[in-house]
């Protein structure tokens, strides 16, 4: 796979006049790597791309040291998508789907949307910073007919910062998928800048602030997938095209990439929590397949003897 410049990153930028913070995600190689060992139909692979871009843009708005997870579950043919993103930029993910149901949608006369694929269900965001920190989770229903619509509903219900998100997706003639996300948030004012959120006592200021926000949203919505995912345009150029009249400042981009966290050591630790006779097959061996990367971990009799050998001083189980 050829690396595409300006992709597989998250770019943060500031719209100075509106006091709005923006985040831009574009993925290419990462999506290919996420799907490489899975036989996903095009419809499923495209939704994985959108979910990965949404995960990255949401995670980039948080300060955390650990893992951000986005899990989508529904009663449609595409029943589950799970994307993990570490604070180091490493991403992994997989999906579960009913092949016959997805094929029926692919053969339909009209292009199926996300609502038909996922059906009714929910979207959950989880931040896990380790055993010593409390986990944070937010849950919202799958509404609005799209993943972006569900995210909008979450921000509306949780009364967080005013937020607008658009997702982008494109499939090349060779089947390669590019995906992206563009998010803006109206930030609270701490330095007297216009765009403040604490102006309820000043109707004129509040109206001007609302007009500024609506203008920023309208500009975001004017962006097309063709333009946003064009390899000819850098992330900084995209931000400048949208908001150059309002003063835009780009910060250092952060790289994103696919990497699974599974390992033989982690699998062994999991096996030890089960009695040996409950997990072996008829040949006396154990095969564990990672859902994320499809890597096989096979343990034969001697390997299992080593795993289940009592430590010195322990009673045999």
UniProtKB/TrEMBL annotation:
Residues 187-213 have a biased composition (Basic and acidic residues). SUPFAM superfamilies: Hsp33 domain, HSP33 redox switch-like. It comes from Varunaivibrio sulfuroxidans. The lineage of its organism: Bacteria, Pseudomonadati, Pseudomonadota, Alphaproteobacteria, Rhodospirillales. The keyword Zinc-finger does not apply. Residues 185-213 are annotated as: Disordered. Transmembrane segments: none annotated. This is Molecular chaperone Hsp33. Keywords: Chaperone, Cytoplasm, Disulfide bond, Redox-active center, Zinc. GO terms for molecular function: protein folding chaperone; unfolded protein binding. GO terms for cellular component: cytoplasm. InterPro entries: Heat_shock_Hsp33, Heat_shock_Hsp33_C, Heat_shock_Hsp33_N, Hsp33_helix_hairpin_bin_dom_sf. One of its GO terms (biological process) is protein refolding. It comes from the Bacteria.
């Amino acid at each position: 796979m050829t690396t595409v410049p300006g992709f597989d990153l998250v770019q943060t930028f500031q719209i100075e006049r509106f006091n709005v913070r923006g985040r831009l995600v574009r993925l290419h190689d990462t999506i290919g790597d996420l799907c490489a060992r899975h036989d996903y139909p095009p419809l499923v692979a495209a939704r994985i791309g959108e979910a990965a871009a949404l995960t990255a843009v949401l995670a980039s708005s948080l300060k955390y040291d650990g893992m951000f997870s986005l899990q989508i579950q529904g009663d449609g043919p595409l029943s589950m998508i799970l994307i993990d993103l570490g604070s180091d930029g490493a991403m992994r993910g997989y999906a579960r789907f009913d092949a016959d149901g997805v094929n029926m949608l692919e053969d339909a006369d009209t292009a199926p949307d996300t609502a038909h694929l996922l059906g009714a269900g929910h979207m959950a965001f989880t931040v896990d910073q380790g055993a010593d920190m409390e986990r944070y989770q937010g849950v919202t229903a799958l509404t609005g007919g799209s993943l972006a619509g569900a995210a909008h509903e979450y921000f509306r219900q949780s009364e967080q910062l005013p937020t607008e998100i658009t997702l982008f997706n494109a499939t090349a003639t060779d089947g390669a998928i590019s995906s992206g996300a563009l998010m803006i948030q109206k930030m609270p004012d701490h330095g007297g800048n216009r765009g403040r959120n604490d102006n309820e006592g000043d109707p004129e200021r509040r109206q001007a602030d609302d007009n500024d926000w609506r203008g920023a949203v309208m500009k975001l919505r004017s962006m097309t997938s063709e333009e946003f995912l064009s390899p000819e345009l850098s992330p900084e150029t995209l931000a400048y095209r949208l908001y150059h009249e309002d003063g835009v400042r780009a910060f250092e981009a952060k790289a994103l990439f696919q990497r699974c966290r599974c390992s033989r050591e982690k699998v062994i630790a999991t096996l030890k929590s089960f009695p040996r006779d409950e997990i072996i097959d008829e040949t006396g061996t154990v095969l564990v397949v990672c859902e994320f990367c499809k890597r096989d971990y096979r343990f034969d009799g001697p390997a299992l003897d080593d795993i289940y050998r009592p430590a010195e001083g322990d009673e045999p189980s």
